[in-house]
Amino acid sequence: MNFLSLFVLIPILSMCGLFFSKNLQQIRVAVATGASLLLVLAVGLVFAYLGERGAGNTAEMLFTADTMWYAPLNIHYSVGVDGISVAMLLLSAIIVFTGTFASWKMEFLQKEYFLWFYLLSIGVFGFFISIDLFTMFMFYEVALIPMYLLIGVWGSGKKEYAAMKLTLMLMGGSAFLLVGILGIYFNSAGTGMPSMNLLEIAHSHAMPLALQRWFFPLVFIGFGVLGALFPFHTWSPDGHASAPTAVSMLHAGVLMKLGGYGCFRVAIYLMPEAAKELSWIFIILTGISVVYGAYSAIVQTDLKYINAYSSVSHCGLVLFAILMLNQTAMTGAVMQMLSHGLMTALFFALIGMIYGRTHTRDIREMGGLMRIMPFLGVCYVIAGLASLGLPGLSGFVAEMTVFVGAFQNTDTFHRVFTIIACTSIVITAVYILRVVGKLLYGKVVNDHHLALTDAVWYERFSTIVLILAITGIGLAPLWLSDMISGSLQSLISMLH
Amino acid sequence: MVYANFLLMKEEVSLVAVIVILLVYDIFGSQKSLKYFQPIACVLVGIHTLLNLSPNIEITAFGGMYHNVPMGSVMKTILNIGTLLVFMQANNWLASERTIIRRGEFYMITLATLLGMYFMISAGNFLMFFIGLETASIPMATLAAFDKYKQKSAEAGAKYILTAVFASGLSLYGISLIYGTTGTLYFEDIPAGITGSPIQLMAFVFFFVGLGFKLSLVPFHQWTPDVYEGAPTSVTAYLSVISKGSAAFVLMAILYKVFAPLVYEWQSILYWVIIATITLANLFALRQQNLKRFFAYSSISQAGYIMLGVISGTAMGMTGLVYYVLVYMLSNLAAFGVIAIVEHRSGKITIDDYNGLYCTNPRLSFVMMITLFSLAGIPPFAGFFSKFFIFAAAAQQGYYVLVFIALVNTIVSLYYYLRVVKAMFINKSEIPIESFRSDGYTRISLLACSAGILGVGVLSIVYESIGTFSFGM
């Protein structure tokens, strides 16, 4: 048994523990243990990975394990990680950990809530450790369906509409994806036994360009729906706004990264020729995502909608950077995934806490909160500054790398779109500062708000962990960017 | 006639033995001992299933009239398991006042239709096939009308028999044209005589209509919602899985074996039938309120998915089809088990009645949920795997567009399956279905179905062992 499988096993065991727990105390013990173990495991994995690389192991995927599953179809359960998946696993573990504490005071049906929450995390972790297309796709779908109930039962606002829209749109994406996966599977082996293994497919190079032209857009759109690719992003604002706090955190923080990671790992890694040829279409679409998302955020008044549109913009930037097809930009894309995951989770956690106190998310009905709840206010400012790219926080490192990488493409088309995407930084500053000014520093709009209390221990705990991670990446990004760009070598050599 | 031939047909012989034992017991058993009719029927069918668990070898008996392939035996085992599950769920309904005197009939008639399906599966000659088809169809009408004092049930029986007879007639006409052009009715010899002449195409189309009716493929599906709604729930369950599963298998076997020379023609017919079936049924299912009608349309669209395994014409398609039927059977029987017990205890049958079911009956809601997720093809439930394999089989032959259409339809189907999930888990109700404890048999059957839905997908051995018996064209 490979230790990577623990990422799937620990949530399963926590779910078993949850299933048999009888009161709130036991439920909390079960989820806190599970989440902490996952975080320890993820941090341990980072050190194990860096140690192994330091010892000179240059294999593309480390810690691989392979078990035959469906022999007639050559489907395996195979796991393995490279620098990118390690980064994603770390991100997921941090968000699951903080999300668990953010939903510490769940009001009703706690057991069911955490069961679904952990099922969702099984999907997420399983997706990042898999290197077999079938297993990967299976975990991808496992991660989608719990969202329906999590939003539908525990959400707020027009939750049923949002839950249904989100589920159907994401499943629609997976319809594209499955056709693409089947196309890759049957056409990538030439005359031999078709394989689902990512490495085998990538190294065989057997897929003709004519077919790649068909299946690349399918796979890219399939994952792009989850990565909020324009015009398939419309599920995201409604979904995020209606979801309960921890689910918004996990969804914007991790699940949207499944899209980016999938685009990179399946679409571009397996079909590099088509990616080179067709990337321009998607560069246009992601360019629209980046700018349009930012502009939409400006006019919103609901805090969650602002962050949801900001997520569309930032996740668009991830896909945009991936499509630049060079090492610097792709490193930036992964850093951006990490950075956006952490800061958007922080945002949603804070919004959840503010909403829990003021019972409104409309910025017109709030003001001067900095005086009333200084801890939450300061954290919100930090999250905002990370989002608009202040040096020293993670957002700066990521966006900087992305734009430097994007500008390395010397042709006019790429440069024009890079400049267009760059404008989003300014727009981001507009909506972040507007919210911070109105929400935190303005006059107190509602006198009832004066009686509100600041964050309590579990809220402080989860926000501090997230802030530490954000500043950690911002101050010491090199180990991370080395780890990521080292893993991009084989893809880059395929592209050139 | 060589009587030793009977010994080769061990599956049919043991089923007939079960029927005869039940018949004798029903006639001669005292009123008091008849209380145990259900357990005895279940045990007998269980023994019959276990005896025939290892697939029979390939045999030809009665000069080629009877031809059994190992895959046929696998299919029969799946049907046996399904029948056993239906029997376990049927008792609540049968024990009610008006049907209790006739409960023996239910088991015997059901097993008689099962025998008909056996003959359909193992036919080596079109006449044998036709006898099997009729044996499976006509008693089915009496089952649909079993609650004859209810108008809807009687109406369902009448509708079923009329459409069934009409479809069989068309089928028989097709068979006669085949006999006229090839001079034989033996499956072995027909392919050599098929030239692809227009009259043979016509023969194929007429023949296809007969089985299309049993499978309720669009446009031969009109009877399905009415019959499913009117028939007693256990009969509907039987109709929707056992009858449909056997017909799908037989259609595939005959298309592979007999109509192999016409492969391009039947593939193109099937192509459009699949698209029409899946799409129309899904669109109609969207607006259903009555759960039995809802599952009628759902089962029509599932039949379309099943046909995706046929259209490929490969061994992989055959494995996918049989596996799909198994998974579909487990899922649908779990759903009908829940519907039957809820209907029995509260008389409620519409989706709105299920509002807030999770608060009062969490376990039943949970079973219903995994069932619906399995039908919609959501992992880790078995439905995901069966859908994947059947799509893979079709995609292997290059039907990417068809697979894509089918996949888009799974999203539509997910929408209406989620409607039920939403009713149970999200909606609140003023008058929820009261909390109740279901009886032991229903529990065991629901538990078995749920275990199957969870286990059949993850454990690859089921798929692999089905795969060892499959064959392509």
Mind explaining what this structure looks like?
The complex is a heterodimer of chains A (496) and B (473). Chain A has helices spanning 6-20, 24-54, 83-102, 110-129, 133-154, 159-187, 198-204, 209-226, 235-242, 245-270, 272-299, 303-323, 327-358, 369-372, 374-387, 394-407, 412-441, 457-475, 478-487, 489-495, and strands at residues 62-70, 75-81. Chain A has one domain. The mean pLDDT of chain A is 86. Chain A is mainly alpha-helical. A two-stranded antiparallel sheet of chain A has the order 1-2. By secondary structure, chain B is mainly alpha-helical. Chain B has 20 helices and 2 strands. Chain B has a two-stranded antiparallel ribbon. The A-B interface holds A 69-73, 134, 138-139, 141-142, 145, 148-149, 152-153, 160, 164, 167-168, 171-172, 175-176, 178-179, 182-183, 185-186, 214 and B 316, 319, 373, 378-380, 384, 388-389, 391-392, 395-396, 400, 403-404, 407-408, 410-411, 414-415, 418, 421-422, 425-426, 460, 463-464, 467.
Number of strands of chain A: 2
Distance between the termini of chain B: 32 Å
How many domains make up the coordinates of chain A? 1
Q: Which protein chains make the most extensive interface, counting residues with beta carbons within 8 Å of the other chain's beta carbons?
A: A-B, 30 and 31 residues
What strand line-up does the widest sheet of chain A have? 1-2
Low-confidence parts of chain A lasting 5 or more residues at pLDDT below 50? none
- Evaluate the radius of gyration of chain A: 21 Å
Strand content of chain A: under 5%
Number of strands of chain B: 2
Number of helices of chain B: 20
Largest sheet of chain A: 2 strands, antiparallel
Q: Catalogue the unreliable spans of chain B.
A: none
- Helix coverage percent of residues of chain A? over 70%
The tally of structural domains of chain B comes to 1
Write the topology of this structure.
The complex is a heterodimer of chains A (496) and B (473).
Chain A lengths: L5 H15 L3 H31 L7 E9 L4 E7 L1 H20 L7 H20 L3 H22 L4 H29 L10 H7 L4 H18 L8 H8 L2 H26 L1 H28 L3 H21 L3 H32 L10 H4 L1 H14 L6 H14 L4 H30 L15 H19 L2 H10 L1 H7 L1
Antiparallel strand pairs in A: 1-2
Chain B lengths: L4 H4 L1 H19 L8 H15 L7 E3 L4 E3 L1 H25 L8 H19 L4 H19 L6 H32 L7 H4 L4 H18 L7 H8 L2 H25 L5 H23 L5 H22 L2 H32 L10 H4 L1 H15 L5 H15 L3 H26 L14 H19 L2 H7 L6
Antiparallel strand pairs in B: 1-2
Helix pairs in contact in B: 2-3, 2-5, 3-4, 4-5, 4-11, 4-14, 4-19, 5-6, 5-11, 6-7, 6-11, 7-9, 7-10, 9-11, 10-11, 10-13, 11-13, 11-14, 12-13, 12-18, 13-14, 13-17, 14-16, 14-17, 14-19, 14-20, 16-18, 16-19, 17-19
